Design the sequence.
């Protein structure tokens, strides 16, 4: 089975721009979670989508949004980029059917640099 | 709210020595517990997890961890370190039930393991 894929792998943007990141989950998985990883704050949960619905979200401003399509692929969008948004953005997929005990399978991440 | 503390942001061992990475959680109800490893420029890979049952959990690459409820700990060990074990290790927890359990892992700050020849 193919793993979780994320595109693009690297991205450079300037402050004020917006960006869209994409995540394709493992085939058959219906849940996609997004995380931000920075040296200062570590790994932080952004939100989770299951069957095109957001089921859970972390404590991030409204500039961070996401969506999920009927094929379970997910996108996250960050509007009005700030320097502090520079980070590795990871997505993870799971079946979404077993709650907190499920294993999440992570993609390689998208590294975003905001100048 | 849950929290996870990993004692020691950097751990250095010699090849063949015992690896011990510490993790403590703070939660009124014992959560599900996970250890992940991250190699440079890669995503996270699951090493092992504890959900229910036997408190000593064996994972991949010779790692194991023991859930100790009385100590709210879930330390990761490996009897003999290998050079290929050099990476960053993350302890994580998730809620057992409810809306906050969906797709959300709460991570510790990570421990970078260095293995010396």
Sequence:
């Amino acid at each position: 089975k193919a793993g979780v894929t994320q595109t693009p792998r690297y991205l450079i943007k300037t402050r004020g721009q917006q960006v869209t990141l994409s995540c394709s989950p493992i085939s058959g998985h219906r849940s996609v979670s997004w995380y931000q990883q920075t040296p200062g704050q570590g790994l932080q949960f952004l939100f989770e989508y299951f069957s095109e619905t957001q089921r859970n979200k972390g404590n991030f401003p409204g500039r961070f949004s996401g969506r999920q399509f009927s094929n379970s692929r997910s996108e996250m969008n960050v509007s009005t980029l700030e320097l502090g948004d520079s980070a590795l953005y990871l997505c993870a997929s799971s079946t979404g059917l077993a709650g907190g005990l499920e294993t999440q399978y992570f993609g390689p991440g998208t590294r975003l640099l905001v100048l | 709210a849950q929290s996870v503390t990993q004692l020691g942001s950097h751990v250095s061992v010699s090849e063949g020595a015992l690896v011990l990475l510490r993790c403590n959680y703070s939660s009124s109800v014992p959560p599900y517990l996970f250890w992940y490893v991250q190699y440079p420029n890669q995503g996270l890979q699951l090493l092992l997890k504890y959900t229910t049952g036997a408190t000593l959990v064996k994972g991949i690459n010779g790692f194991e961890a023991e859930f100790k409820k009385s100590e709210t700990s879930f330390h990761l060990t490996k009897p003999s370190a290998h050079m290929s074990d050099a990476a960053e290790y993350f302890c994580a927890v998730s809620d057992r039930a409810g809306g906050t359990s969906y797709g959300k892992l709460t991570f510790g700050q990570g421990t970078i393991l260095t293995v010396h020849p």
